[in-house]
UniProtKB/TrEMBL annotation:
InterPro entries: PEP_carboxykinase_ATP, PEP_carboxykinase_C, PEP_carboxykinase_N. Pathway: Carbohydrate biosynthesis; gluconeogenesis. The lineage of its organism: Bacteria, Bacillati, Bacillota, Clostridia, Peptostreptococcales. This is phosphoenolpyruvate carboxykinase (ATP). It catalyses: oxaloacetate + ATP = phosphoenolpyruvate + ADP + CO2. The keyword Cell inner membrane does not apply. Belongs to the phosphoenolpyruvate carboxykinase (ATP) family. It comes from the Bacteria. Keywords: ATP-binding, Decarboxylase, Gluconeogenesis, Kinase, Lyase, Nucleotide-binding, Pyruvate, Transferase. NCBIfam families: PRK09344.1-3. GO terms for biological process: gluconeogenesis. SUPFAM superfamilies: PEP carboxykinase N-terminal domain (SSF68923), PEP carboxykinase-like (SSF53795).
Length: 519
């Protein structure tokens, strides 16, 4: 049996409408005041520690292997079980145009709510797609192996099996993981990044579109910056492309993947106009939010979980248009949230860009893990869905950046500067961060060399008094150098675990000749 063609089931329900799926899931629904459905899942987060990759491809440091033999045994168990079940088949396209990827989800009928949400994240299928072989397939059986979550992806077959969890994010990410791997096999990179266009005028010149992609771990403000208008008015403006995953070609073109945004709802309020307006639409679908009497929604109540979520339609996000692709990632922004010696913004060389991609750096917040608040945390590419040796991802990015010298990389700190024992640091506000991005697009920043790290830091930024954002002023020379060397050591130790990483990427963090010799 060709699993990407069809499965055997007691009854196969092929591409039911959203209305039909909502009816199937009616017994699980709480209807909100907006007329939208809300559901409670038993599992409220992704199960990364129970997610495996079949070991028929090279794996990286952070990935867990499962043998082909064990995977085949579980696959057989799942497919045999489905022969006696009613199963929904949903076909969708990832991305638009001739390069769109044919995706298919199989899920048992009782979990129609998951199928409905997933259908809203991608694009409607092409004519006759239900009878075609899919490019990527996920087979999702939440009720099987309950209490023993098992998720595994077979990258050669382009199939993912999910059992024991009813968390929607598993279905969404299963397709994106496979698509990112496919893009890497074609010579590009799958990136866990938002994308947008800033349409700006430089001086008295013509309008110019500047493409941005934004990387950032949870809590860094990536979504906020992705959907912000940067206070551009008149002919100038913003176009939002994607908020989660883009597939970058060797020439810097970024293929958009999704037609719906999967947003965190915690603390969502009317002042966050772009996301809030989409969230209060009757077309939104929620998981694990607080819904009181008469369907009253309270996004600030996190008694159920702090990971409340909603799938909202891209067309209901202000500042989107008909396009999802980015013609070029002109500016690559690595968002971090640190509170001491990290400058408010820094401009990077291609080698430094690849290094900070590999570092995927931020600090833990009290909301994430209170016991580790303030400590560094890192994830290569800010992407927990990488398959394969992580160092090769950094090498590939460096190759792309060198081949496209018009692409520029920056670090953007959204935390604070100068924190110490009795000072929490000079806070970097959203207003500052969004203005900096605008000035990056307009080339309104004058740069100077940071001698400790070798990157460029702002001497002047149009419209911003940056005097209070220079970290050196908050420390003695000895204290500052101590923090620099502590962070440098952390970074080098992190990068050294990736054996395939090009030496020149590691060396830019070491920076000085004696330090380079030591590695």
């Amino acid at each position: 049996m060709n699993i990407r063609q069809t499965i055997l089931a007691k009854k196969l329900i092929v591409n039911p409408s959203n209305r039909q799926m909502r009816t199937m899931a009616a017994d699980m629904e709480t209807t909100t005041e907006f007329g939208s459905p809300s559901y409670i899942s038993k599992i409220k987060n992704r199960s990364a520690k129970f997610t495996y990759i079949v070991d028929n491809v090279p794996l990286g440091v952070a990935q867990k292997p499962i043998s082909e033999e064990k995977a085949s045994m579980i696959e057989k168990q799942i497919l045999t079980y489905l022969e006696g079940q009613e199963v929904i088949q949903i076909d969708r396209l990832m991305g638009m145009g001739s390069a769109a990827i044919k995706c298919r989800l199989y899920i048992t009928k009782q979990w129609a709510r998951i199928a409905m949400k997933w259908a809203n994240t991608l694009f409607p299928p092409m004519e006759g797609q239900s009878a075609m072989e899919a490019d990527i397939v996920s087979i999702y059986v939440p009720e099987l192996n309950e209490g023993n979550i098992t998720i595994f992806a077979d990258m050669k077959k382009r199939v993912t099996y999910i059992t024991g969890t009813d968390y929607f994010g598993e279905s969404k990410k299963s397709f994106l993981r496979q698509a990112m791997y496919m893009m890497k096999e074609k010579g590009g990179l799958g990136l866990h990044a938002g994308s947008k266009v800033l349409r700006i005028k430089k001086g008295e010149g013509q309008l110019q579109d500047v493409g941005f992609i934004l990387f950032g771990l949870s809590g860094t403000g990536k979504t906020t910056l992705t959907v912000h208008d940067h206070h551009l008015t008149g002919e100038e403006g913003v176009v939002i492309r994607q908020d989660d995953v883009v597939l970058m070609h060797e020439n810097g073109y970024c293929f958009g993947t999704e037609n719906g945004f999967y947003i965190k709802t915690e603390g969502l309020e009317p002042s966050q106009k772009v996301l809030y307006q989409a969230a209060v639409s009757e077309n939104a679908v929620f998981d694990n939010i607080w819904v009181g009497e008469q369907g009253k929604v309270d996004f600030c109540n996190i008694d159920i979980t702090s990971n409340g979520r909603g799938v909202v339609l891209r067309e209901e996000i202000a500042m989107t248009d008909e396009e999802v692709d980015l013609s070029k990632a002109d500016k690559v922004i690595f968002i971090t949230r640190r509170n001491d010696i990290m400058p408010v913004v820094a401009k990077l060389t291609p080698e430094q860009g690849a290094a900070f991609f590999m570092l995927g750096e931020s600090i833990e917040t009290s909301a994430g893990d209170p016991t580790k608040a303030g400590q560094s945390k890192r994830e290569v590419g800010t992407n927990p869905f990488i398959v394969g040796p992580e160092g090769l991802e950094g090498n590939r990015l460096l190759k792309i950046l060198k081949a496209n010298p018009d692409m520029e990389c920056y670090i953007l700190n959204t935390g604070s500067v100068g924190a110490g024992k009795d000072f929490s640091g000079e806070k970097i506000t959203i207003k500052i961060s969004t203005e900096i991005m605008k000035q990056i697009a307009k080339e309104g920043i004058t740069w100077e060399l940071d001698k400790d790290w070798g990157y460029l830091v702002p001497k002047e930024i149009e419209g911003i008094d940056i005097s209070k954002y220079r970290p050196q002023q908050y420390y003695s020379v000895e204290a500052y150098q101590g923090l620099v060397e502590k962070l440098r050591k952390e970074r080098i130790n992190w990068l050294k675990q990736f054996k395939e990483l090009d030496r020149e990427i590691l060396e830019v963090i070491a920076h000085s000749v004696p330090e380079r010799a030591a590695i």
